[in-house]
């Protein structure tokens, strides 16, 4: 009788390739992004290996291709898809009490567009890698020979369409599919951050599409959008590109902020301090993010008077970001803090590193300082402290935090701590020396440099190898633990958001009955509730 009632086992293709389950799509996003993370990290190691010697170990053309591919892969194929593809897809329906995304088939389409776009970028390596940097500024990108640049444009279009479809899905899901009682003031902070990010993707990505479309037209159809000799304006490309790409910085960090807002109160054993301030500061960042793009162009020929408003807005946007940091610190203050692996990434790893990146960001936001530091390694240090010390640290916090929910098993904690310390030490050793050589005047995007900078470059390269070792250990730990790790219950961390109320891993339909929400997800457990949670775990 049991054999008759048992559902037939589905093939791998039916189970994964044709799935419309938001959880499986989130897993596919995550696994694919980790694959691209290894490729982008390999290009980073090649860049750092070249810089071991002031003479450079590779030829200039190869070096240009390496740093172009490194940044392109990390921005478009790793950080954004991991946060808004993997985490958002897996968690948003669970956290709002929905059975799936609003448009499951469109959700699957967005993943496969992302996958195809990533493959096209990798194919460019066979036909001449793009070498103009991830910004692809004309006029150089107009004259770059070979189809590599065309592959880049095609991939950006496809990945951008994936982002737009994913953003629409998140917006509709959060607005229309929240469980009864899930008011805006009871919404988990991760959902707040992804909703704001989705709106940013929806409004910003078309500007990038316009930039690369006109670039392709200039390359192959004799238009003159960016040909200054024929009346075109190369600066127009920069305005279009950065109208997307500076909001993209917040697209890469706002969901990461949401992860931190979920992890810290759980392990501080306190309610999140200033829920409304954290939620509405995300909205403020999303709004102000569209008014700062031209601070990338202070030395591009823009009038000084035009740069002043962008300098002011770039400094103002630090205020809502600081609000979040102070609220996270206040949440930990006098809490019964448990320094688990996720908490180490969230507190010391993220907050300790992101503050450095935020401080250097206020420096380069000022016009007179930026005119000295623009296109030096100081800017490289800043963006890596924001994106690696910030976004990647948060991604690692989130992976370790929700790993038991995803697999029903616990990772090896000793390897987890080892991976964290390698990441934290590697981050400081790799990126902090870049501040020093940048202040001394070392230009970015160069294959060889003055001998005086060699020592600090060698230190930074050693740090990059430490990060590479940390990545191997982390991925090994996760892969082995997914199969052999200790089994855990549905809520091993004793968290309160809705995803922890279902089994680990969750069933395909998420909830047997749509939950009715009657309380905030950040109220601390009473002693009786905590005892019951521990027993169930």
From TrEMBL:
GO CC annotations, alphabetized: plasma membrane
Q: Name one Pfam family in it.
A: COX1
Which EC number(s) does UniProt give? Answer: 7.1.1.9
A Gene Ontology biological process term:
respiratory electron transport chain
| Domain called Cytochrome oxidase subunit I profile: residue spans | 16-518
Keyword Membrane in record = yes
Q: Please provide, alphabetically and separated by semicolons, the GO molecular function terms listed in this UniProt record.
A: cytochrome-c oxidase activity; heme binding; metal ion binding
Keyword check for Electron transport: yes
| Subcellular location field | Cell membrane; Membrane
Q: Which UniProt keywords apply?
A: Cell membrane, Copper, Electron transport, Heme, Iron, Membrane, Metal-binding, Respiratory chain, Translocase, Transmembrane, Transmembrane helix, Transport
Q: Topology in the membrane?
A: Multi-pass membrane protein
* Residue ranges of the TM segments: 27-47, 67-91, 111-129, 149-175, 187-209, 241-260, 272-294, 306-330, 342-367, 379-403, 415-436, 456-478
Q: What is its main location?
A: membrane
- Reaction catalysed by this enzyme: 4 Fe(II)-[cytochrome c] + O2 + 8 H(+)(in) = 4 Fe(III)-[cytochrome c] + 2 H2O + 4 H(+)(out)
Pathway of this protein? Energy metabolism; oxidative phosphorylation
Lineage top rank: taxon: Bacteria
Which InterPro entries does the record match to this protein? Answer: Cyt_c_oxase-like_su1_dom, Cyt_c_oxase-like_su1_sf, Cyt_C_Oxase_1, Cyt_c_Oxase_su1_BS, Cyt_c_oxidase_su1_bac
Function recorded in the entry: Cytochrome c oxidase is the component of the respiratory chain that catalyzes the reduction of oxygen to water. Subunits 1-3 form the functional core of the enzyme complex. CO I is the catalytic subunit of the enzyme. Electrons originating in cytochrome c are transferred via the copper A center of subunit 2 and heme A of subunit 1 to the bimetallic center formed by heme A3 and copper B.
Q: Which family does it belong to?
A: Belongs to the heme-copper respiratory oxidase family.
Q: Quote the protein name from its UniProt record.
A: Cytochrome c oxidase subunit 1
């Amino acid at each position: 009788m049991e054999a008759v009632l048992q559902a037939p086992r589905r093939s791998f293709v039916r189970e994964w390739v044709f799935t419309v389950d938001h959880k499986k799509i989130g897993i596919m996003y995550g696994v694919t992004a980790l694959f691209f993370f290894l490729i982008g990290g390999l290009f980073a190691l090649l860049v750092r290996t070249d810089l071991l010697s002031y003479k450079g170990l590779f030829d200039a053309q190869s070096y240009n291709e390496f740093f172009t591919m490194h940044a392109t892969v990390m921005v478009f194929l790793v950080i954004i898809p991991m946060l808004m593809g993997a985490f958002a897809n897996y968690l948003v329906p669970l956290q709002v009490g929905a059975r799936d995304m609003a448009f499951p088939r469109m959700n699957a389409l967005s993943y496969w567009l992302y996958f195809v776009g990533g493959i096209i970028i990798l194919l460019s390596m066979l036909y001449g890698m793009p070498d103009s940097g991830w910004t692809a500024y004309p006029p150089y990108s107009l004259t770059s020979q070979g189809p590599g640049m065309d592959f880049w444009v095609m991939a950006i279009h496809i990945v951008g369409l994936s982002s737009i479809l994913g953003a629409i899905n998140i917006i509709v899901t959060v607005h229309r599919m929240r469980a009864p009682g899930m008011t805006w003031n009871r919404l988990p902070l991760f959902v707040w951050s992804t909703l704001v990010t989705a709106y940013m993707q929806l409004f910003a990505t078309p500007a990038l599409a316009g930039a690369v479309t006109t670039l392709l037209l200039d390359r192959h159809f004799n238009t003159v959008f960016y040909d200054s000799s024929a009346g075109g304006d190369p600066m127009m490309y920069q305005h279009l590109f950065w109208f997307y790409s500076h909001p993209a910085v917040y697209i890469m960090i706002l969901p990461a902020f949401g992860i931190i807002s979920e992890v810290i109160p759980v392990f501080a054993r306190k309610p999140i301090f200033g829920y409304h301030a954290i939620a509405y500061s995300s909205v403020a960042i999303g709004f102000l993010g569209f008014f700062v793009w031209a601070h990338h162009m202070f030395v591009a020929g823009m009038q000084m008077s035009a740069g002043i408003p962008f300098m002011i807005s770039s400094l103002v946007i630090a205020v809502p970001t600081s609000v979040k940091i102070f609220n996270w610190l206040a949440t930990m203050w006098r809490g019964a803090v448990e320094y688990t692996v996720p908490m180490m990434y969230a507190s010391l790893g993220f907050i300790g590193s992101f503050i450095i990146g935020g401080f250097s960001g206020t420096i380069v936001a000022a016009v007179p300082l930026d005119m000295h530091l623009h296109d030096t390694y100081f800017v490289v240090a800043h963006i890596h402290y924001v994106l690696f010390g910030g976004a990647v640290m948060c991604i690692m916090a989130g992976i370790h935090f929700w790993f038991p929910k995803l697999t029903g098993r616990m990772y090896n904690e000793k390897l987890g701590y080892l991976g964290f310390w390698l990441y934290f030490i590697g981050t400081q050793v790799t990126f902090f020396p870049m501040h020093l050589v940048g202040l001394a005047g070392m230009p970015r995007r160069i294959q060889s440099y003055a001998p005086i900078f060699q020592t600090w470059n060698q230190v930074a390269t050693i740090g990059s190898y430490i990060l590479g070792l940390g990545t191997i250990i982390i991925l090994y730990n996760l892969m082995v633990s997914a199969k052999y790790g200790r089994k855990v219950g549905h809520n091993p961390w004793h968290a309160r958001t809705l995803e922890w109320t279902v089994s680990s891993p969750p069933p395909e339909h998420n909830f047997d009955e749509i939950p009715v929400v009657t309380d905030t997800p950040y109220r601390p457990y009473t002693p009786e509730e905590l005892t019951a949670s521990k027993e169930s775990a």
